[in-house]
Amino acid sequence: MTEFWLISAPGEKTCQQTWDKLMVATTRTNNLSTNNKFNIPDLKVGTLDVLVGLSDELAKLDSFVESVVKKVAQYMADVLEDSRDKVQENLLANGVDLITYITRFQWDMAKYPIKQSLKNISEIISKQVTQIDNDLKARASAYNNLKGNLQNLERKNAGSLLTRSLADIVKKEDFVLDSEYLITLLVVVPKTNYADWQKTYETLAEMVVPRSTNLLFEDQDSGLFSVTLFRKAIDDFRHKAREQKFIVRDFQYNEEEMKADKEEMTRLSTDKKKQFVRPRLCVFNAGRFHLCRYGLPVNFQAMLLQPNKKNMKKLREVLYDLYKHLDSSAAAIIDSAVDIPGLNLSQQEYYPYVYYKIDCNLLDFK
């Protein structure tokens, strides 16, 4: 698991001083976390009322984006099948792994122009993620159809000799072809009945060609034998063979059909592999724009912390000591079940600084 804490706090005299204080408190003496500045441009914030009104919408959008990203990861795992251990290395954002993307995050000015309002930017993100979600549904449906068709063909090429495809077993030279009078049949014989077959097959019907049987293939239970006889004896031979527990397969050698089946198998397998395309991962950050907690004008430093797993509790205490002066009511709020109108924060995630947890572990497979 790779967990990050995205926090922001108002600048001291400068934002750099806020950063320096955090570094001293968390890294230079006690190695509580690995920190990076998180670069957020000067957004068109608007009024406090606008920010509060937008907060619920951003929370819904955040949940939606997270669900789509996890679906993308699940799709990747489904497509990789037996190579699921390689999923993480193929989950890329803008061509790099997620940790690199987050720690070196740069706002995409072209896609999300900062001259637009936060509401417009959130709508742009919503439309893009909705399109990704729709594309993913279409791709997943196509993949499942391909997978189903391929499995049906694979089933035909496996299993009992009574039901499986014989196209990959028999050869042209196993048959008498283009004869007006003679035909070659394929018969499934239980291994325990091999001796009976050899003794009786010539007498199961009139006009069976002597010494015409050959063992072409066998599995764990049965063998596939060829036998040649006159066409007009087929029905009688089939009936008598069944009485002896010899099953005549309904098979006619057709080179074109067999070639088409093999080509279809290859095509489906190739198309299935083509479904493995690194999907676009949309990572939606910027602390859910909880800038309103410090009022306006905006003067804050956003910081990305990767906690040392063994020292998470200590890190939380240090952060509280650093920023408790920002909100004297924070401790009381944490201990109670008070909701802050417009912010939609649970009691567990309210701190005297902006806090947003980022979990890069998108995969949780059974």
From TrEMBL:
The gene is atp6v1c1a. It comes from Electrophorus electricus (Electric eel). V-ATPase is a heteromultimeric enzyme made up of two complexes: the ATP-hydrolytic V1 complex and the proton translocation V0 complex. The V1 complex consists of three catalytic AB heterodimers that form a heterohexamer, three peripheral stalks each consisting of EG heterodimers, one central rotor including subunits D and F, and the regulatory subunits C and H. The proton translocation complex V0 consists of the proton transport subunit a, a ring of proteolipid subunits c9c'', rotary subunit d, subunits e and f, and two accessory subunits. GO terms for cellular component: lysosomal membrane; vacuolar proton-transporting V-type ATPase, V1 domain. PANTHER family: V-TYPE PROTON ATPASE SUBUNIT C, V-TYPE PROTON ATPASE SUBUNIT C 1. Belongs to the V-ATPase C subunit family. Keywords: Acetylation, Hydrogen ion transport, Ion transport, Transport. It comes from the Eukaryota. This is V-type proton ATPase subunit C.
